[in-house]
Amino acid sequence: MSGDRAAGENAPPGHGGRGGRRERGTRNTGAATPPMPRLVNRFNPVDILSPEQVERILDAAFTLLETDGMKILSPRAREAYRRHGAMVDEESRIVRLGRDIVEAMLATAPSSFVLHARNPARDLHVGGHVVNFGPVNGAPNIRDLDRGRRYGDIEGFRDILRITNGLGLLHWQGGVVVEPVDVPVPVRHLEMYRAHIELSDLVWAARGVGGVQARDALALSAIEHGTSVEALAERPTLMTVTNVNSPRVVDEEILDNIMTMAGHGQCVVITPFTLMGAMAPVTLAGALVQQTAEACAIIALCQMLRPGAPCVMGGFTSNVDMKTGSPAFGTPEYVNAALATAQIARRLGVPVRTSAVNASPAPDAQATWETSFSLWAAIMSHSHLINHAAGWLEGGLSASLEKIVIDAELLRGWAEILKPIEFGDDELALDAIRGVAPGGHFFGSPHTLARYENAFYRPILSDWSNYENWRDAGERTATDRALDIWKKTRDAYVPPPLDPAVREAVDAYIARRTEEELVPGTR
């Protein structure tokens, strides 16, 4: 599994490999703009910790696991820990793990792996120097300029998939891009999975809570890929993005989800919810110790269940507003935490997930600068999965359709920045420079005329008009223009092909499971 790698994904910084180029032969994905290419980070990662500081954090994290442990609320999980030598106190449900156990388990976790999409050209490569963008996830509300802020529904869920896929923004679809509260809770995940399969051919994520939700995801993914649930382990297709109930507790529903997915060889992205001053110490170093301990404990569990199961160390450490307790994102503290988390993950040899997040209540300048700080930290830390990269607002309380378009500009801009720069004789352009007299211009140069159509990045949202033209066009801000773009993208979106037999089997499975969940006595 870890050997199934894309060319260039482990190329050192400065060697772009397949980097920013659109892959030839990619079949139609329904995107209105070219789909996001596989991105290889050509920059050196930014390390903010010294090697000694990294080791001190790891020593403290391993000490915490050995002396104080984790509260593990699943009897099945506690038994797995016990079988592998952990000290388990059934009365307190505390599991204590020696450093030797944790390090032995981490050694079996792959440093890179591939999750397979229905469209093979869009397989998700995790690890090395590959950068992947995913959408907003877990928001209870959806909002736009026309309809305002409201609870999420299944049509809003599907709209987000249409817009993000239509803009060709992402490397995976996400999971709960907004909570569809109009669908009954027992079958809500089924309708979300149906939307993912019908509207895109990218990798998608199972809901991160509940063993039932994980088992249904496995069954539906097997149908989508024309294989069995058992065979998915050899060719993984799914991820689950889930949390620790920080500080140092993991509940039974989350553990059931994790254990089901890991046991079937699917990717577990485990993210401690370590907000400094609330669920973690107020200091960055202390929060990193707790985050590392919590993540390592769950990665170790996954490896106990299935050695080699793909795992990702998640980082979500940020600060809170000490006046109100509200989470803050895109702050200097968040930037430092993201950079440090990736550095620690590199030392441990596991891929890392972070986020492009903000705390603004509106898709405004604040939302943009906070997201920009978060995104810079995610990319320059060499994080592999960048969650919430399109549409996240209000610290995760809302999915904003205008913000998806604003973020599209940020993500496509970064994709262009990450492209390798060509330095052949033609690019050095010595003959072109000689061909223009001193004081002349290059507008009519043959060198320019041969390249002008594709010479530079073309934005989808920015307005480069002069003031008078902008004024005469209605003085519309970027947020105003984003409203038009997402509407046009949504309305024009054509999903990629789906085999009618697959569609029929998906519908039949969901119909049966819906009856089992909603009709008494049918299970």
Automatic annotation (TrEMBL):
One Gene Ontology MF term: trimethylamine methyltransferase activity
Example GO biological process: methylation
Region: Disordered, residue numbers: 1-39
Enzyme class, UniProt record, top EC level: transferase
EC code(s) of this entry: 2.1.1.-
Signal peptide span: none
Domain of life, per lineage: Bacteria
Protein keywords: Methyltransferase, Transferase
Coiled coil: none
UniProt-listed InterPro entries: MttB-like_sf (IPR038601), MTTB_MeTrfase (IPR010426)
Family: Belongs to the trimethylamine methyltransferase family.
Protein name per its UniProtKB record: Methyltransferase
Species of origin: Labrys monachus
